[in-house]
Amino acid sequence: MKREGLTLGILGGGQLAQMLALDAIPLGVQVTVLEPAPDAGAALCARHIQAPYDDPAGLEVLAGCDAVTLEFENVPVAALEYLEGRVPVRPGAGLLAHSKHRAHEKAGLRAAGAGTAEFAVIEAESDLSGALERVGGQGILKTSELGYDGKGQRRVSSDAELRAAWEELGGVACVLEGLVPFAREVSLGVARTAAGDLAFGPLVENVHRSGILRTSLYLGGDQRAAQQARDIARRVAEAWELEGLMTLEFFELPGGELLVNEVAPRVHNSGHLTQDGGGLSQFGAQVRAVLGLPLSDWAPLLPTAMVNWVGVEDEAAQPDWDAVDALPGTHIHLYHKAWRPGRKLGHVNLTAPDSETLRARLTELERLIP
Length: 370
Fold this sequence. Notes:
Elements: E1 6-11, H1 15-24, E2 29-34, E3 47-49, H2 56-63, E4 67-70, H3 77-83, H4 93-99, H5 102-111, E5 119-122, H6 131-134, E6 139-143, E7 153-156, H7 159-168, E8 174-178, E9 184-192, E10 198-200, E11 204-209, E12 212-218, H8 223-239, E13 244-252, E14 258-264, H9 282-291, E15 304-310, H10 321-326, E16 330-334, E17 344-351, H11 355-368
Parallel strand pairs: 1-2, 1-4, 2-3
Antiparallel strand pairs: 5-8, 6-7, 6-8, 9-10, 9-11, 9-13, 11-12, 12-15, 13-14, 15-17, 16-17
Helix pairs in contact: 1-9
């Protein structure tokens, strides 16, 4: 296949599109992003079409690319309909129909043979009765669409709390998920080409703070859990006819069983550590899968971690970047985004020659980033 002159369109122009473009450039791929924001981070390394996602003129440019991918799942239906049949969109509308709607996602996961938490679909007031009991008496009510990083969610433990939470969320379609007594949260990416070639990312352990990913850790020694995650990811990727890359987030139960919590049809925050641990990154994997280039498993070659930098209430509480830079093994990635509380503004990857050294450095890195 030709390399120079390959073109990739991306719906979205934030930090994920930026990092996709940075991995595409060395492969000879020219990237165009469609993004309404004037300060799109991806504009630093890709052609930026500043227009709404469903703008016909902007979509016409993307339709002239070799393939189109995305950095977020809530793509307007009109955009997909415009591109359908004109250019390969990977992942496509069928997979997005699963992943962007929590009720469809849960049903699709179970149909593919993947375990999930108990859940109940809440689409009308009449669905509230008995729902909490069916999921075990305690749960998390989540909007079926548009929720991320802890948004659009309420924890409930009584029928009265459930009703109040549903009303607070606007009485929109929701999914009530039973609480899972997990031992830890992990994630794994899977990529698949249009020809059916599969590749997998590393099993990464994740810790969240206020509903937003705080740290991710890869040590590489948990082969039993990794194989279980790969088996589940394979079943879902094949059942959903994945073309491109998606990331599965899991709850690991105390006995070792993995339940799928959520699916993202794209590169994922927890996979950012693959940028600097050596070998292929998740961004290179998505570019390769979407364009049909040779694909292989991707995982750091060294123990690797990531710490997110998220905007806090006090804008003056900036990390000591010089100290972060001076810590051995650090790689700073800033997103060129305006500060806002709760907004992801950057991340720092960290590598070390062994697990013990990595954990010690990670403790120090977390101290330096509020």
